[in-house]
Amino acid sequence: RDAALVVVGSANRDVTVEVRRRPGPGETVFGGDTRTSTGGKGANVAVAAARLGATVAMVGSVGQDVAGDELLSALREAGVGTRLMRRGEPPSGAAYITVTPDGENSIIVSPGANAALGAEDVHAAREVLAGAAVLCTVLEVPLEAVRAAVRSAVASGVRVVLNASPVVALDAGTMAAADPLIVNTHEACWLLGREDDQAADPAGLARELRATGPRAVVVTCGGRGAVVADGSGEVTWVDAEPVTVVDTTGAGDAFSGALAARLAAGAGLVAAAEHAARVAAISVTVRGTQDSYPTAADVP
Ligand code: RIB
Ligand code: NA
């Protein structure tokens, strides 16, 4: 087959600056040197999975500009199939990222060409998708494309991994197909219509979210690991190795890519989440997103 894993999602040119603290309204602060790299939640997921040895094809949209060339080359270098990538009106998507000394990031995404991804692009990918084991999709592209991909996967019996980031309201059909839905605690609270409560019990969030429809739910909790609520309703904690955090940007994408790669290779959900937690932990010890993702040989 063409690919065991198909990723439907975004590709962005990342522009990152390290700052001691973020500026407030009307304030100017100095930061470190600008770093530009290839990113976007969809491309990050695809690269993470390909580095770990999965055969991956990506469905996405970049502009006919230099950034678009770079985004496609980065995918190809990682071994991701780009035949199903659309090239449209510039500009390519871009993300403006600040990273503080604690490794936390804040991101402004300018969607650019990602906004042109539509149901027809997903339709053009239907044969490759039907031959895959897993579809992984993220929400930085139009919901119409995500929904078309999920519908097509369900119709072909392809497992759906849905990383609901950045979080938006999802229809019942899309939620019901997720196996698993992957969210962090903030996104979980948002989907449950609760106040963003850092003290919320992740196991409770996973259980409550699963009751809203998904076949399984994974709630990621940064340095604390993740919680898996599987099809039987059983809830399992997956621990994260303690590491020195340099940059958390794209750690969630690394987690989703690694999890999807493992599921595509036939692993069970808890084992896949354990592997994903190790991959995400490695990624936060190195600056950047795609550049910090390990190969299979780097993962203990
Ligand atoms: O999750 C990290 C990613 O979010 C970055 O690569 C940036 O492009 C934004 O999409
Ligand atoms: Na990193």
Describe the protein in words.
With 300 residues, the protein is an alpha/beta fold. It has 10 helices and 14 strands. It has helices at 41-51, 66-78, 119-124, 126-130, 143-155, 172-177, 185-191, 202-210, 251-264, 269-283, and strands at 5-8, 12-18, 35-39, 56-59, 61-63, 86-88, 93-99, 105-110, 134-138, 159-163, 178-184, 217-220, 226-229, 235-238. It has an 8-stranded mixed sheet with strand order 4-1-9-10-11-12-13-14, sandwiched between helices. It has a 4-stranded mixed sheet with strand order 3-2-7-8. A two-stranded parallel ribbon has the order 5-6. Strand 7 (93-99) and strand 8 (105-110) form a beta hairpin. The radius of gyration is 18 Å and the shape is globular. The mean pLDDT is 97. Sodium ion binds next to loops.
Through-space gap between termini:
29 Å
Bound molecules: alpha-D-ribofuranose, sodium ion
Strand content: 15-25%
Rg measurement, Å: 18 Å
Q: Approximately how much helix is present in the residues?
A: 25-40%
Task: Give the overall form.
Answer: globular
Low-confidence segments, given as residue ranges, are: none
Question: What about the largest sheet?
Answer: 8 strands, mixed
Mean of the pLDDT scores? Answer: 97
Structural class: alpha/beta
How is this fold's topology laid out?
Layout: E1 5-8, E2 12-18, E3 35-39, H1 41-51, E4 56-59, E5 61-63, H2 66-78, E6 86-88, E7 93-99, E8 105-110, H3 119-124, H4 126-130, E9 134-138, H5 143-155, E10 159-163, H6 172-177, E11 178-184, H7 185-191, H8 202-210, E12 217-220, E13 226-229, E14 235-238, H9 251-264, H10 269-283
Parallel strand pairs: 1-4, 1-9, 2-7, 5-6, 9-10, 10-11, 11-12
Antiparallel strand pairs: 2-3, 7-8, 12-13, 13-14
Helix pairs in contact: 1-2, 1-9, 7-8, 9-10
Bound molecules: alpha-D-ribofuranose (RIB) and sodium ion.
